[in-house]
Structures are given as C-alpha cells and as structure tokens.
Amino acid sequence: MRIVIKGGRVVDPDRLDGIRDVFIEDDQIAAVIGQEEDAGRPFGENDADRVIAAQDCIVSPGLVDMHVHLREPGEEYKETIETGIRAAAAGGFTSICCMPNTKPVNDSKEVTTYIISRAKSFRSVRVFPVAAVSMGLEGEALSEYGALKAAGAVAVSDDGRPVANSQLMRRALEYSQSIGFPVISHTEELTLSNGVMNEGPVATRLGLSGIPNAAESVMVMRDIALAELTGSPVHIAHVSTSESVREIRAAKQRGVAVTAETAPHFFTLTDQSVVEYNTHAKMYPPLRSEKDRRTVCEALADGTIDAIATDHAPHSELEKQVPFDEAANGVIGLETSVSLGLRIVEEGWLTLWQWIEKMSINPARILGLPTGIRVGGRADLTVIDPSQAYTYRAAEGLSKARNTPFEGWELKGRTRCTIVDGRIIHEI
C-alpha cells in the first residue's frame, strides 16, 4: 500500500513543523519532504494507491490515549473492544491503553492476552492493556507484574479504586521499577470521598453531598512521598485540583520522578455543569471550581501536567438515568478530545506543539511506546482539520455509550484521517 498525505502542516514537536508531503509505503514512513522538492521522493503521486489532500490540515504523530475503559470482558452492554476502538479511531487515536477494572479484573496473563488478541482481530487501533496493581483490585496482594508484562501489559493501575494500603503501594513502586513497569495512581482518599460531586456552593445549593479537593490531593502527596522514598516513578491519573497541581509542580522541581495527566472535561467544565442534577456530568474526580479549571490549564501550559487522556468511561442508560446520588461516575470522551483540546489551543493556553506533545509524544514516552514522525518509523499518523465545525451528537458517534456532558455543543476541529501501520482505519 502506497499513500501520500499531501500538503499538510506536519508537526512533530521533536523534529519538524512545516508544509510537507508524507509518503507511506506498507507500514512505514518512506519520506517526509517539501512539496517543491523532487529529490528523495520514493514514488510519484501517480504510483500511489491513495493521495490524501491535507491542505489546511495538521498531520501529527498518531494520538495516544493512556486512560480508556473498554468494559470488555464482562460489561459488553456498556462498550466492547470493537466499539471502543472504532470510537478511538474516529477520535484520531492510533494507540489506547485500557484500564484493568473489567470483569474479571485484568490481573492475569490470560485476561491480558485475551484483550490483545481480541483487539488485533479488528486490525485497527493498537490496544495496550494496563494490568491491576493488586489481585482483584482488592488492595491486599500484588499482581504478578513480570508475567503481565511478558503477556503484553504496559503498566499497572488499580484505576477506579485507590491503593489504600501505603505499604502495598510502596511495594508496587519497588516491584514495578525493577522490571520497568509504570504505576498509574488513582488518587482518592476513600474516607474523604463519600460525596457525589465537588464540595462547594453548587453542592450546597443542590443539596448534594460534597467531595473536597483534599480527597484527591492527600493521596497525590502520599504517592509523591512514596516515589521519593523508593526512587521509583509514579504517574498521577486524572488531576483535577489546584492542590494536586501545586504538589506535583513542587515534586518535579526537586527531582521526584512524577508525571501526571488530566482529562478534557477538567480543563473545559466546572461543577456548574451539574446544575439540574445532570448525571452526565457526574464523575470521579468530580468537576471542580473555576479556579481549579484554570489551574489545570496553567499546569498544562507550564508542563506540570504532562499528558491529556480522556478517561473514556462508558455507561448505559441503566447507570445514568437514575437519581444523581445513585448514578455511576464517568463520561465518554474519545470522539470529543481533539475538539476540546484545540479549544484551549485557540484560547492561548497551549501552543499547537504543546498540545501534540500532550496528546501523543508524552503519553507514549511515559509508557515506553514508539512515537514520532521519522523516515523508517512506523506509519501511525493522525490528520486533523482544525477548522471543521460541527454539532456534537453522541448518538451519531461510534461508541456504544451516550454519557457525555458535551451533547449538542458546537465544536471545531475534527479528525480527517487516522492511519495505523500504513492502513487508513478511519476517514471522513
């Protein structure tokens, strides 16, 4: 298969930014050259199987989402590996990492192998399983990290639950460091998080129980302390509070090996979205205050937060069309992430380079995955039209779920084409 992506703005923050033609042959990038250059072209456009006109588009390294819930095995009525990767491809992602809180939990090589095999059968987005820190996510005994890594897992996390036992978390960091296995921390102090939304004036007005910022930041501080003690890296998931940002920033300044991610809903929305008891705006961590939202944006800008991940958490109407107190936490996000990220680029919080770093380069580096646009490298690329405007309708998306707070939003910026291993897996 020979493909030419013609005339797009090719942006790889590590090495290039300019109008280029990208030549793909089979599963590799064969050449990246200026349109006016003739030398170095591996084949002519007439010899190509496909020419993708990318004028006024961005051509980036394939986007990487390091925090996705696919629900399979066990809860296929919410999402399946097939529907999840179709949504990911539509969102521009060439690689995604799926969390272990499935049924059964991904704490064994058998579950890891099943997920990888099932995903490969669709010849689409690359799926990298994240295995459980502890057996059954119960926080009592560590999983077999060596066997899980050999089976294809790329990290461990008890996401959906915190590792409450500090000694176990210490052992997890030490074990993972010995085999080069990142630990992704779900930072939640359970004794403080027994509310249903952010603690503050909105919760008081609605008569709902609140979750203070400290429910997150207390555990962020603990895990930073354990990373400092052990000399092991730790990655903090779904950062939502000013206090967490402050502690991560200070830890980085003194050399602690800590990285962090946030999600588009945390830099776009506040707890005002919960007004009228909107269960599609219910998640953990909860949507916070405007101060917290702005602090998260600032942390993305200055590098305190390294990555943007969707925390795509599909639920059916059974879990969302219920009283707010009873509704499940979580929102979908694979098909809106590009549009919401480009909003903060347009608003001036991030440059385009910074945004691509946080959507592709940095998450790949944290997880030890190949990345970048280079001749001879694998042809995983995302073509984005930053000016395409549309009204987001979840029912028109490819995810099985509809639980989004962005229903009906007027958005701008959309994935034109997603390419994995030199194959076009999504195109509009």
Notes on the protein architecture:
This protein has 428 residues and is α/β, with parallel strands linked by helices. The protein folds into two domains: 86 residues, Urease, subunit C, domain 1 (Roll), CATH 2.30.40; 306 residues, TIM Barrel. Helices cover 29% and strands 23% of the residues. The protein contains twelve helices and 18 strands. The strands form three sheets. Strands 1, 2, 3, 4, 5, 16, 17 and 18 form an eight-stranded mixed β-sheet that branches. The chain has an eight-stranded parallel β-sheet with strand order 6-7-8-9-10-13-14-15. A two-stranded parallel sheet has the order 11-12. Strand 6, helix 1 and strand 7 form a beta-alpha-beta unit. Helix 4 packs across helix 6.
Cα gyration radius (Å): 21 Å
Query: What's the architecture of the largest domain, going by CATH?
Result: Alpha-Beta Barrel
**What number is the mean pLDDT?**
97
- Poorly predicted runs are none
| CATH H-tier superfamily of the largest domain | Metal-dependent hydrolases
* N- and C-termini, Cα separation: 19 Å
Strands, total number: 18
Domains counted in the coordinates: how many?
2
Task: Please work out how many helical segments DSSP would assign.
Answer: 12
Describe the sheet with the most strands.
8 strands, mixed
Helix content: 25-40%
CATH class of the largest domain: Alpha Beta
Say what oligomer this is: single chain
Strand pairing plus helix content: what structural class? alpha/beta
CATH fold-level label of the largest domain:
TIM Barrel
- The shape, in one word, is globular
Q: What is the H-and-E element order?
A: EEEEEEHEHEHEHEEHEHEHEHHEHHHEEE
Strand content: 15-25%
